[in-house]
Design brief:
By secondary structure, the protein is an alpha+beta fold. It is about 30% helix and about 25% strand. It has 16 helices and 24 strands. Strands 13-12-24-23-22 form a 5-stranded antiparallel beta sheet, with helices on both faces. A 4-stranded antiparallel beta sheet has the order 3-4-5-6. A hairpin with a 5-residue loop joins β15 and β16. α8 packs across α15. The chain is rod-shaped and about 130 Å long. The N and C termini lie far apart (about 90 Å). It comes from Microtetraspora malaysiensis. InterPro entries: Beta-lactam/transpept, Beta-lactam/transpept-like, MecA_N, NTF2-like_dom_sf, PCN-bd_Tpept. This is Penicillin-binding transpeptidase domain-containing protein.
Length: about 550
Protein backbone atom coordinates (compact mmCIF):
# COMPACT_ATOMS: atom_id res chain seq x y z
CA UNK A 1 0.00 0.00 0.00
CA UNK A 2 2.75 2.43 0.80
CA UNK A 3 4.39 1.76 -2.58
CA UNK A 4 1.07 2.38 -4.35
CA UNK A 5 0.57 5.65 -2.49
CA UNK A 6 4.13 6.73 -3.41
CA UNK A 7 3.52 5.95 -7.08
CA UNK A 8 0.29 7.93 -7.00
CA UNK A 9 2.00 10.87 -5.35
CA UNK A 10 4.78 10.88 -8.01
CA UNK A 11 2.14 10.92 -10.73
CA UNK A 12 0.38 13.89 -9.13
CA UNK A 13 3.61 15.88 -8.77
CA UNK A 14 4.67 15.22 -12.37
CA UNK A 15 1.22 16.14 -13.67
CA UNK A 16 1.26 19.46 -11.80
CA UNK A 17 4.73 20.39 -13.06
CA UNK A 18 4.15 19.61 -16.74
CA UNK A 19 1.25 22.08 -16.87
CA UNK A 20 3.85 24.86 -17.00
CA UNK A 21 7.09 23.20 -18.23
CA UNK A 22 7.97 20.51 -20.71
CA UNK A 23 9.99 18.38 -18.35
CA UNK A 24 11.52 17.89 -14.96
CA UNK A 25 15.20 18.55 -14.18
CA UNK A 26 16.64 16.57 -11.32
CA UNK A 27 20.01 17.32 -9.76
CA UNK A 28 22.24 14.80 -8.02
CA UNK A 29 24.55 15.83 -5.17
CA UNK A 30 27.88 14.49 -4.10
CA UNK A 31 28.26 12.67 -0.83
CA UNK A 32 29.32 15.81 1.01
CA UNK A 33 26.27 17.68 -0.29
CA UNK A 34 28.54 20.32 -1.73
CA UNK A 35 26.41 20.90 -4.81
CA UNK A 36 25.13 19.33 -7.98
CA UNK A 37 27.37 16.88 -9.77
CA UNK A 38 25.27 16.78 -12.91
CA UNK A 39 21.86 17.58 -14.26
CA UNK A 40 19.70 14.71 -15.43
CA UNK A 41 16.71 15.48 -17.59
CA UNK A 42 13.51 13.43 -17.52
CA UNK A 43 10.92 14.65 -19.96
CA UNK A 44 8.42 13.31 -22.48
CA UNK A 45 4.70 12.64 -22.51
CA UNK A 46 3.17 12.38 -19.07
CA UNK A 47 0.29 10.03 -18.37
CA UNK A 48 -2.83 11.24 -16.58
CA UNK A 49 -2.36 11.23 -12.83
CA UNK A 50 -4.23 8.50 -11.00
CA UNK A 51 -6.66 9.61 -8.35
CA UNK A 52 -5.62 8.39 -4.89
CA UNK A 53 -8.06 6.12 -3.16
CA UNK A 54 -8.07 3.74 -0.24
CA UNK A 55 -6.29 1.03 -2.23
CA UNK A 56 -7.02 -1.48 -4.96
CA UNK A 57 -9.90 -3.88 -4.73
CA UNK A 58 -9.15 -7.50 -3.97
CA UNK A 59 -7.21 -8.99 -6.90
CA UNK A 60 -6.82 -5.62 -8.64
CA UNK A 61 -3.40 -4.73 -10.12
CA UNK A 62 -1.64 -1.94 -8.24
CA UNK A 63 -0.54 1.13 -10.23
CA UNK A 64 0.16 1.42 -13.96
CA UNK A 65 3.16 0.55 -16.17
CA UNK A 66 3.65 4.30 -16.81
CA UNK A 67 4.04 4.98 -13.11
CA UNK A 68 6.54 2.19 -12.62
CA UNK A 69 8.58 3.10 -15.70
CA UNK A 70 8.76 6.79 -14.87
CA UNK A 71 9.57 6.18 -11.22
CA UNK A 72 12.31 3.78 -12.28
CA UNK A 73 13.89 6.43 -14.54
CA UNK A 74 13.46 9.08 -11.86
CA UNK A 75 15.33 6.92 -9.36
CA UNK A 76 18.00 6.24 -11.95
CA UNK A 77 18.38 9.97 -12.51
CA UNK A 78 19.20 10.54 -8.86
CA UNK A 79 21.34 7.42 -8.57
CA UNK A 80 18.95 5.76 -6.12
CA UNK A 81 19.73 2.19 -7.09
CA UNK A 82 18.02 0.70 -4.06
CA UNK A 83 14.69 2.29 -4.99
CA UNK A 84 15.21 1.11 -8.57
CA UNK A 85 15.84 -2.39 -7.28
CA UNK A 86 12.45 -2.45 -5.53
CA UNK A 87 10.79 -1.87 -8.91
CA UNK A 88 12.56 -4.79 -10.57
CA UNK A 89 11.24 -8.34 -10.72
CA UNK A 90 13.83 -10.71 -9.30
CA UNK A 91 16.74 -8.26 -9.48
CA UNK A 92 20.25 -9.74 -9.37
CA UNK A 93 22.07 -9.48 -6.08
CA UNK A 94 24.64 -7.16 -7.67
CA UNK A 95 22.04 -4.93 -9.34
CA UNK A 96 23.44 -1.67 -7.92
CA UNK A 97 27.02 -2.83 -8.37
CA UNK A 98 26.46 -3.53 -12.08
CA UNK A 99 25.32 0.06 -12.65
CA UNK A 100 28.24 1.51 -10.71
CA UNK A 101 30.77 -0.80 -12.33
CA UNK A 102 29.60 0.10 -15.82
CA UNK A 103 29.92 3.83 -15.20
CA UNK A 104 33.26 3.40 -13.44
CA UNK A 105 34.59 1.20 -16.25
CA UNK A 106 33.67 3.82 -18.83
CA UNK A 107 34.69 6.83 -16.72
CA UNK A 108 31.13 7.92 -17.47
CA UNK A 109 28.07 9.44 -15.85
CA UNK A 110 24.47 9.34 -17.05
CA UNK A 111 23.46 12.91 -17.81
CA UNK A 112 20.10 12.55 -19.55
CA UNK A 113 17.13 10.19 -19.49
CA UNK A 114 14.07 10.75 -21.64
CA UNK A 115 11.05 8.43 -21.36
CA UNK A 116 8.95 7.51 -24.34
CA UNK A 117 5.41 6.25 -24.69
CA UNK A 118 4.33 3.10 -22.85
CA UNK A 119 2.88 0.44 -25.12
CA UNK A 120 0.82 -2.49 -23.89
CA UNK A 121 2.11 -5.75 -25.36
CA UNK A 122 -0.37 -7.98 -23.55
CA UNK A 123 -2.94 -8.07 -20.75
CA UNK A 124 -0.22 -7.86 -18.14
CA UNK A 125 2.85 -6.80 -20.15
CA UNK A 126 4.06 -3.50 -21.53
CA UNK A 127 7.21 -1.75 -22.66
CA UNK A 128 8.62 1.76 -22.80
CA UNK A 129 11.29 2.93 -25.20
CA UNK A 130 13.55 5.54 -23.65
CA UNK A 131 16.69 7.42 -24.59
CA UNK A 132 19.62 8.55 -22.53
CA UNK A 133 23.10 9.97 -22.72
CA UNK A 134 26.32 9.49 -20.83
CA UNK A 135 29.09 11.98 -20.40
CA UNK A 136 32.49 10.31 -20.82
CA UNK A 137 35.76 11.67 -19.54
CA UNK A 138 37.75 13.08 -22.43
CA UNK A 139 34.75 13.20 -24.79
CA UNK A 140 33.40 16.60 -25.78
CA UNK A 141 29.85 15.55 -26.53
CA UNK A 142 27.47 13.09 -24.88
CA UNK A 143 27.24 9.43 -25.82
CA UNK A 144 23.59 8.78 -26.66
CA UNK A 145 21.89 5.44 -26.21
CA UNK A 146 18.33 4.10 -26.57
CA UNK A 147 16.89 1.11 -24.78
CA UNK A 148 13.64 -0.44 -23.63
CA UNK A 149 12.05 -0.99 -20.25
CA UNK A 150 9.98 -4.16 -20.37
CA UNK A 151 7.32 -4.43 -17.68
CA UNK A 152 4.99 -7.10 -16.45
CA UNK A 153 2.55 -7.66 -13.62
CA UNK A 154 4.06 -9.61 -10.79
CA UNK A 155 2.16 -10.15 -7.52
CA UNK A 156 -0.48 -7.61 -8.57
CA UNK A 157 1.99 -4.77 -9.26
CA UNK A 158 3.87 -3.60 -12.31
CA UNK A 159 7.55 -4.54 -12.27
CA UNK A 160 10.51 -3.94 -14.54
CA UNK A 161 11.83 -7.08 -16.24
CA UNK A 162 15.43 -6.06 -15.97
CA UNK A 163 18.40 -7.26 -18.04
CA UNK A 164 21.80 -5.61 -18.61
CA UNK A 165 20.40 -4.36 -21.94
CA UNK A 166 18.53 -1.68 -19.96
CA UNK A 167 21.91 -0.06 -19.22
CA UNK A 168 22.98 -0.39 -22.86
CA UNK A 169 20.95 -2.05 -25.60
CA UNK A 170 23.84 -4.20 -26.88
CA UNK A 171 24.83 -5.54 -23.49
CA UNK A 172 24.06 -9.23 -22.88
CA UNK A 173 24.03 -11.25 -19.68
CA UNK A 174 27.58 -11.70 -18.52
CA UNK A 175 28.83 -9.05 -20.93
CA UNK A 176 30.66 -5.84 -20.18
CA UNK A 177 31.59 -2.51 -21.66
CA UNK A 178 35.27 -1.76 -21.39
CA UNK A 179 37.11 1.49 -21.85
CA UNK A 180 40.64 1.08 -23.18
CA UNK A 181 42.75 4.19 -22.74
CA UNK A 182 45.79 4.58 -24.93
CA UNK A 183 49.00 5.05 -22.94
CA UNK A 184 50.32 8.56 -22.62
CA UNK A 185 52.35 8.96 -25.79
CA UNK A 186 56.09 9.18 -25.59
CA UNK A 187 57.57 12.47 -26.65
CA UNK A 188 58.06 12.54 -30.41
CA UNK A 189 61.05 14.39 -31.73
CA UNK A 190 61.13 16.14 -35.06
CA UNK A 191 63.57 18.23 -37.02
CA UNK A 192 63.93 21.97 -36.73
CA UNK A 193 61.35 22.34 -39.51
CA UNK A 194 58.87 20.10 -37.69
CA UNK A 195 59.39 17.16 -40.06
CA UNK A 196 59.96 13.52 -39.18
CA UNK A 197 63.55 12.38 -39.14
CA UNK A 198 64.72 10.82 -42.41
CA UNK A 199 64.54 7.05 -42.77
CA UNK A 200 67.65 5.38 -41.33
CA UNK A 201 68.93 8.71 -40.12
CA UNK A 202 71.59 7.12 -37.90
CA UNK A 203 70.40 9.55 -35.22
CA UNK A 204 68.08 7.01 -33.58
CA UNK A 205 70.17 6.50 -30.41
CA UNK A 206 70.10 10.25 -29.77
CA UNK A 207 66.31 10.45 -30.15
CA UNK A 208 65.90 7.43 -27.87
CA UNK A 209 68.06 9.08 -25.23
CA UNK A 210 66.10 12.31 -25.52
CA UNK A 211 62.95 10.27 -24.89
CA UNK A 212 64.33 9.00 -21.60
CA UNK A 213 65.48 12.42 -20.46
CA UNK A 214 62.60 14.66 -21.45
CA UNK A 215 59.66 14.30 -19.04
CA UNK A 216 56.70 12.48 -20.54
CA UNK A 217 53.56 14.54 -21.24
CA UNK A 218 51.70 15.43 -18.00
CA UNK A 219 48.91 13.19 -16.74
CA UNK A 220 46.30 15.59 -18.09
CA UNK A 221 47.53 15.20 -21.63
CA UNK A 222 44.66 14.23 -23.92
CA UNK A 223 44.95 10.65 -25.13
CA UNK A 224 42.87 8.39 -27.30
CA UNK A 225 40.51 5.72 -25.99
CA UNK A 226 38.10 3.03 -27.16
CA UNK A 227 34.80 1.75 -25.74
CA UNK A 228 34.60 -1.95 -26.47
CA UNK A 229 31.61 -4.31 -26.09
CA UNK A 230 32.54 -7.75 -24.80
CA UNK A 231 29.66 -10.22 -24.72
CA UNK A 232 30.03 -13.95 -24.09
CA UNK A 233 30.61 -16.04 -27.23
CA UNK A 234 30.98 -12.90 -29.35
CA UNK A 235 33.98 -11.15 -30.77
CA UNK A 236 34.73 -7.83 -29.04
CA UNK A 237 33.19 -4.90 -30.91
CA UNK A 238 34.18 -1.23 -30.79
CA UNK A 239 31.20 1.00 -30.01
CA UNK A 240 32.93 4.34 -29.65
CA UNK A 241 36.47 5.61 -29.99
CA UNK A 242 38.42 8.79 -29.87
CA UNK A 243 41.71 9.08 -31.68
CA UNK A 244 44.41 11.05 -29.95
CA UNK A 245 45.40 14.15 -31.84
CA UNK A 246 48.67 13.65 -33.67
CA UNK A 247 51.51 15.25 -31.76
CA UNK A 248 53.31 18.03 -33.54
CA UNK A 249 56.45 16.76 -31.84
CA UNK A 250 59.24 18.37 -29.91
CA UNK A 251 61.62 20.20 -32.19
CA UNK A 252 65.33 19.55 -32.15
CA UNK A 253 67.99 21.70 -33.81
CA UNK A 254 68.54 19.07 -36.51
CA UNK A 255 67.81 20.19 -40.06
CA UNK A 256 65.94 17.58 -42.11
CA UNK A 257 67.88 17.96 -45.36
CA UNK A 258 71.26 18.26 -43.66
CA UNK A 259 70.53 15.14 -41.60
CA UNK A 260 69.49 13.19 -44.68
CA UNK A 261 72.68 14.23 -46.49
CA UNK A 262 74.83 13.15 -43.53
CA UNK A 263 73.08 9.80 -43.23
CA UNK A 264 73.36 8.96 -46.91
CA UNK A 265 77.05 9.94 -46.90
CA UNK A 266 77.60 7.24 -44.26
CA UNK A 267 75.60 4.52 -45.99
CA UNK A 268 78.66 2.83 -47.56
CA UNK A 269 80.75 3.12 -44.37
CA UNK A 270 80.79 1.25 -41.08
CA UNK A 271 82.22 2.63 -37.83
CA UNK A 272 82.00 6.29 -38.80
CA UNK A 273 80.20 9.45 -37.75
CA UNK A 274 79.36 12.93 -39.02
CA UNK A 275 78.38 15.86 -36.82
CA UNK A 276 77.40 19.15 -38.45
CA UNK A 277 77.01 22.35 -36.46
CA UNK A 278 75.67 25.79 -37.33
CA UNK A 279 78.78 27.84 -36.65
CA UNK A 280 76.92 31.00 -35.71
CA UNK A 281 74.78 29.36 -33.00
CA UNK A 282 76.23 26.00 -31.99
CA UNK A 283 73.04 24.23 -33.03
CA UNK A 284 73.64 20.65 -34.14
CA UNK A 285 72.32 20.53 -37.71
CA UNK A 286 73.02 16.83 -38.19
CA UNK A 287 74.33 13.85 -36.26
CA UNK A 288 74.73 10.62 -38.20
CA UNK A 289 76.41 7.97 -36.10
CA UNK A 290 77.37 4.43 -37.15
CA UNK A 291 79.84 3.96 -34.32
CA UNK A 292 77.20 2.50 -32.00
CA UNK A 293 75.34 4.16 -29.15
CA UNK A 294 75.99 7.90 -29.00
CA UNK A 295 79.72 7.72 -29.70
CA UNK A 296 79.75 10.85 -31.84
CA UNK A 297 78.88 12.81 -28.67
CA UNK A 298 80.31 10.69 -25.87
CA UNK A 299 83.15 8.67 -27.44
CA UNK A 300 86.58 10.27 -27.22
CA UNK A 301 89.45 9.39 -29.51
CA UNK A 302 92.83 10.89 -30.32
CA UNK A 303 92.03 13.73 -32.76
CA UNK A 304 95.40 13.55 -34.48
CA UNK A 305 96.38 16.47 -36.65
CA UNK A 306 92.97 18.13 -36.42
CA UNK A 307 94.19 19.25 -32.97
CA UNK A 308 96.90 21.29 -34.72
CA UNK A 309 94.09 23.83 -35.08
CA UNK A 310 94.23 24.36 -31.31
CA UNK A 311 98.05 24.50 -31.29
CA UNK A 312 98.01 26.91 -34.24
CA UNK A 313 95.61 29.18 -32.35
CA UNK A 314 98.08 29.34 -29.46
CA UNK A 315 100.96 30.08 -31.85
CA UNK A 316 99.01 32.82 -33.65
CA UNK A 317 98.01 34.32 -30.33
CA UNK A 318 101.67 34.24 -29.31
CA UNK A 319 102.81 36.39 -32.22
CA UNK A 320 103.29 34.12 -35.23
CA UNK A 321 101.36 34.72 -38.43
CA UNK A 322 100.26 32.48 -41.27
CA UNK A 323 103.26 33.73 -43.26
CA UNK A 324 105.85 33.10 -40.57
CA UNK A 325 108.71 30.93 -41.83
CA UNK A 326 109.09 27.69 -39.91
CA UNK A 327 111.11 24.48 -40.45
CA UNK A 328 109.41 21.21 -41.51
CA UNK A 329 112.16 18.56 -41.39
CA UNK A 330 111.51 14.84 -41.75
CA UNK A 331 112.30 14.31 -38.06
CA UNK A 332 112.69 16.45 -34.96
CA UNK A 333 114.39 15.28 -31.79
CA UNK A 334 113.25 17.01 -28.62
CA UNK A 335 116.23 18.15 -26.50
CA UNK A 336 116.90 15.28 -24.12
CA UNK A 337 113.74 13.66 -25.40
CA UNK A 338 112.08 11.55 -28.07
CA UNK A 339 112.19 11.93 -31.83
CA UNK A 340 109.08 13.07 -33.75
CA UNK A 341 108.55 11.94 -37.35
CA UNK A 342 106.53 13.45 -40.16
CA UNK A 343 104.07 11.24 -42.00
CA UNK A 344 106.19 8.96 -44.18
CA UNK A 345 109.17 10.99 -42.88
CA UNK A 346 108.74 13.66 -45.54
CA UNK A 347 111.08 16.64 -45.40
CA UNK A 348 109.52 19.89 -46.63
CA UNK A 349 112.35 22.18 -45.60
CA UNK A 350 111.52 25.77 -44.67
CA UNK A 351 107.85 26.64 -45.17
CA UNK A 352 105.30 29.12 -43.88
CA UNK A 353 103.17 28.27 -40.89
CA UNK A 354 100.24 28.07 -43.30
CA UNK A 355 102.06 25.52 -45.43
CA UNK A 356 103.16 23.52 -42.38
CA UNK A 357 99.53 23.30 -41.29
CA UNK A 358 98.31 22.46 -44.80
CA UNK A 359 100.94 19.74 -45.19
CA UNK A 360 100.32 18.58 -41.61
CA UNK A 361 103.95 18.75 -40.46
CA UNK A 362 104.22 17.00 -37.11
CA UNK A 363 107.82 18.11 -36.69
CA UNK A 364 106.92 21.78 -37.14
CA UNK A 365 104.18 21.77 -34.51
CA UNK A 366 106.16 19.65 -32.04
CA UNK A 367 109.15 21.99 -32.29
CA UNK A 368 107.11 25.21 -32.08
CA UNK A 369 105.10 23.89 -29.13
CA UNK A 370 108.23 22.98 -27.18
CA UNK A 371 109.96 26.28 -28.01
CA UNK A 372 107.08 28.78 -27.98
CA UNK A 373 104.03 27.35 -26.21
CA UNK A 374 103.96 26.50 -22.53
CA UNK A 375 101.88 23.63 -21.18
CA UNK A 376 99.61 26.11 -19.41
CA UNK A 377 99.11 28.14 -22.59
CA UNK A 378 98.12 25.06 -24.59
CA UNK A 379 95.67 24.05 -21.85
CA UNK A 380 94.14 27.55 -21.89
CA UNK A 381 93.73 27.52 -25.66
CA UNK A 382 92.15 24.07 -25.61
CA UNK A 383 89.73 25.18 -22.89
CA UNK A 384 88.73 28.21 -24.99
CA UNK A 385 87.73 25.78 -27.74
CA UNK A 386 85.63 23.60 -25.48
CA UNK A 387 88.08 20.98 -24.21
CA UNK A 388 87.28 19.91 -20.67
CA UNK A 389 83.76 21.32 -20.98
CA UNK A 390 80.63 19.41 -19.97
CA UNK A 391 78.15 20.16 -22.73
CA UNK A 392 74.41 20.69 -22.27
CA UNK A 393 73.37 19.03 -25.51
CA UNK A 394 70.27 17.34 -24.09
CA UNK A 395 71.70 13.85 -24.50
CA UNK A 396 74.91 14.21 -22.57
CA UNK A 397 78.32 14.29 -24.16
CA UNK A 398 81.61 16.03 -23.65
CA UNK A 399 83.94 17.94 -25.88
CA UNK A 400 87.43 16.68 -25.31
CA UNK A 401 90.16 16.36 -22.72
CA UNK A 402 93.89 16.42 -22.24
CA UNK A 403 96.13 16.14 -19.25
CA UNK A 404 98.49 18.99 -18.57
CA UNK A 405 101.75 18.08 -20.35
CA UNK A 406 104.39 17.62 -17.64
CA UNK A 407 107.47 17.51 -19.88
CA UNK A 408 108.56 18.49 -23.41
CA UNK A 409 107.82 15.01 -24.77
CA UNK A 410 104.22 15.19 -23.59
CA UNK A 411 103.85 18.75 -24.87
CA UNK A 412 105.17 17.75 -28.31
CA UNK A 413 102.79 14.78 -28.52
CA UNK A 414 99.83 16.93 -27.48
CA UNK A 415 100.66 19.55 -30.13
CA UNK A 416 99.53 17.22 -32.92
CA UNK A 417 96.68 15.48 -31.10
CA UNK A 418 98.35 12.41 -29.63
CA UNK A 419 99.41 11.48 -26.11
CA UNK A 420 96.62 12.23 -23.63
CA UNK A 421 94.56 14.36 -26.05
CA UNK A 422 91.09 12.96 -26.75
CA UNK A 423 88.07 14.48 -28.46
CA UNK A 424 84.59 13.56 -29.61
CA UNK A 425 83.35 14.10 -33.15
CA UNK A 426 81.00 16.73 -31.71
CA UNK A 427 83.93 18.49 -30.07
CA UNK A 428 85.96 18.76 -33.24
CA UNK A 429 82.94 20.00 -35.20
CA UNK A 430 82.62 22.81 -32.64
CA UNK A 431 86.31 23.66 -33.06
CA UNK A 432 85.80 24.07 -36.80
CA UNK A 433 82.68 26.13 -36.11
CA UNK A 434 84.66 28.46 -33.85
CA UNK A 435 87.10 29.21 -36.66
CA UNK A 436 84.27 30.04 -39.05
CA UNK A 437 82.24 32.19 -36.63
CA UNK A 438 85.04 33.77 -34.58
CA UNK A 439 83.69 32.39 -31.30
CA UNK A 440 83.30 28.98 -29.72
CA UNK A 441 79.59 28.31 -29.12
CA UNK A 442 78.58 25.31 -27.00
CA UNK A 443 76.92 22.76 -29.32
CA UNK A 444 73.38 21.66 -28.50
CA UNK A 445 70.75 19.35 -29.94
CA UNK A 446 67.73 21.07 -28.34
CA UNK A 447 66.65 24.63 -27.62
CA UNK A 448 68.97 26.03 -24.95
CA UNK A 449 66.37 26.20 -22.15
CA UNK A 450 65.21 22.62 -22.76
CA UNK A 451 68.75 21.26 -22.90
CA UNK A 452 69.61 23.07 -19.68
CA UNK A 453 66.59 21.61 -17.91
CA UNK A 454 67.49 18.09 -18.99
CA UNK A 455 71.21 18.29 -18.23
CA UNK A 456 70.67 20.01 -14.91
CA UNK A 457 73.17 22.77 -15.62
CA UNK A 458 73.39 25.82 -17.80
CA UNK A 459 75.27 25.50 -21.08
CA UNK A 460 78.80 26.86 -20.97
CA UNK A 461 79.23 30.41 -22.15
CA UNK A 462 80.36 31.23 -25.66
CA UNK A 463 84.03 32.18 -25.90
CA UNK A 464 85.03 34.88 -28.43
CA UNK A 465 88.37 34.36 -30.14
CA UNK A 466 91.01 36.97 -30.95
CA UNK A 467 90.30 38.48 -34.37
CA UNK A 468 93.91 38.06 -35.47
CA UNK A 469 93.85 34.41 -34.41
CA UNK A 470 90.58 33.80 -36.27
CA UNK A 471 91.89 35.39 -39.48
CA UNK A 472 95.04 33.30 -39.29
CA UNK A 473 93.17 30.04 -38.65
CA UNK A 474 90.83 30.68 -41.57
CA UNK A 475 93.84 31.18 -43.84
CA UNK A 476 95.41 27.95 -42.57
CA UNK A 477 92.26 25.85 -43.01
CA UNK A 478 91.62 27.23 -46.48
CA UNK A 479 95.11 26.19 -47.57
CA UNK A 480 94.46 22.56 -46.58
CA UNK A 481 91.85 22.15 -49.35
CA UNK A 482 93.65 24.23 -51.97
CA UNK A 483 97.29 23.16 -51.57
CA UNK A 484 97.46 20.74 -48.69
CA UNK A 485 96.40 17.25 -47.65
CA UNK A 486 92.80 17.65 -48.91
CA UNK A 487 93.67 19.37 -52.20
CA UNK A 488 92.54 17.67 -55.40
CA UNK A 489 89.74 15.80 -53.68
CA UNK A 490 86.08 15.83 -54.61
CA UNK A 491 85.23 18.46 -52.00
CA UNK A 492 83.07 21.28 -53.40
CA UNK A 493 84.54 24.74 -53.77
CA UNK A 494 84.55 26.97 -50.72
CA UNK A 495 85.38 24.29 -48.16
CA UNK A 496 88.05 24.92 -45.55
CA UNK A 497 89.24 22.11 -43.33
CA UNK A 498 91.90 19.99 -41.67
CA UNK A 499 92.69 16.32 -42.09
CA UNK A 500 93.82 14.13 -39.26
CA UNK A 501 95.31 10.68 -38.88
CA UNK A 502 95.54 9.49 -35.30
CA UNK A 503 97.25 6.50 -33.77
CA UNK A 504 95.03 4.22 -31.73
CA UNK A 505 96.69 3.99 -28.31
CA UNK A 506 95.20 0.51 -27.95
CA UNK A 507 97.18 -0.70 -30.93
CA UNK A 508 94.55 -0.87 -33.66
CA UNK A 509 94.69 0.74 -37.12
CA UNK A 510 94.81 4.53 -37.30
CA UNK A 511 91.68 6.66 -36.94
CA UNK A 512 90.74 9.03 -39.76
CA UNK A 513 89.46 12.59 -39.30
CA UNK A 514 88.40 15.55 -41.37
CA UNK A 515 86.99 18.75 -39.88
CA UNK A 516 85.97 21.92 -41.66
CA UNK A 517 83.27 24.32 -42.71
CA UNK A 518 81.47 25.66 -45.75
CA UNK A 519 79.55 28.84 -45.18
CA UNK A 520 77.85 28.73 -41.79
CA UNK A 521 77.92 24.92 -41.64
CA UNK A 522 80.84 23.38 -39.76
CA UNK A 523 81.37 19.64 -39.54
CA UNK A 524 83.56 16.80 -38.35
CA UNK A 525 83.91 13.37 -39.95
CA UNK A 526 85.44 10.53 -37.94
CA UNK A 527 86.16 7.02 -39.20
CA UNK A 528 87.22 4.56 -36.52
CA UNK A 529 90.29 2.59 -37.69
CA UNK A 530 89.75 4.15 -41.12
CA UNK A 531 93.37 4.93 -41.94
CA UNK A 532 94.32 8.39 -43.20
CA UNK A 533 92.03 11.37 -43.07
CA UNK A 534 92.69 12.08 -46.75
CA UNK A 535 91.66 8.60 -47.90
CA UNK A 536 88.85 7.74 -45.49
CA UNK A 537 87.28 10.89 -44.02
CA UNK A 538 87.56 13.43 -46.85
CA UNK A 539 85.48 11.34 -49.34
CA UNK A 540 82.67 11.07 -46.78
CA UNK A 541 82.74 14.83 -46.24
CA UNK A 542 82.66 15.34 -50.00
CA UNK A 543 79.54 13.16 -50.39
CA UNK A 544 77.89 14.98 -47.51
CA UNK A 545 78.64 18.51 -48.71
CA UNK A 546 77.82 17.83 -52.36
CA UNK A 547 74.36 16.59 -51.35
CA UNK A 548 73.48 19.92 -49.71
Amino acid sequence: MRRRALLALVGVVVAIIVTSVTGLVLQGKDEAGAGPQTQLLIDGPTPPAPVPDDGPAEGQVEGTPEETARTYLSDWATGDYESMRELVDEPPADFAAQHRQLDDALSAQVVRLKPGKVTKTGEQTAEMRFTGARKLAGYDGAWDFASTLRLAVRDLSWKVLWTPAVMHPDLAEGGELVRIDEPVPATRFVTKEGRAFPHESYAEPYLAELGTRIPQPPSGTEVGWTIELRNPAQRPRVLLEKKAAASEGTKTTVEAFTQAAAARALDPVQQAAIVAVRASTGEVAAVADRLGGREAFTGKYAPGSTFKTVTAAALLDGGLSADSQVPCPATYTIPNGRTINNYQEKDHGSVTLQQAYALSCNTTFARLAVQLVSADRLMEQAAALGFGTSLATGVGGTCGSLNRPENPDALAEASFGQGTVEASTLCMASVAAAVQSGAWHPPRLLPADVAERIEGHAPPASVPLNDTVVAGLRSLMSAVTTEGTAAGSELPEGVSGKTGTAEDWQGGPDHAWFIGYKGDLAFAVFVKHGGTGRNAAVPIAARFLRAL
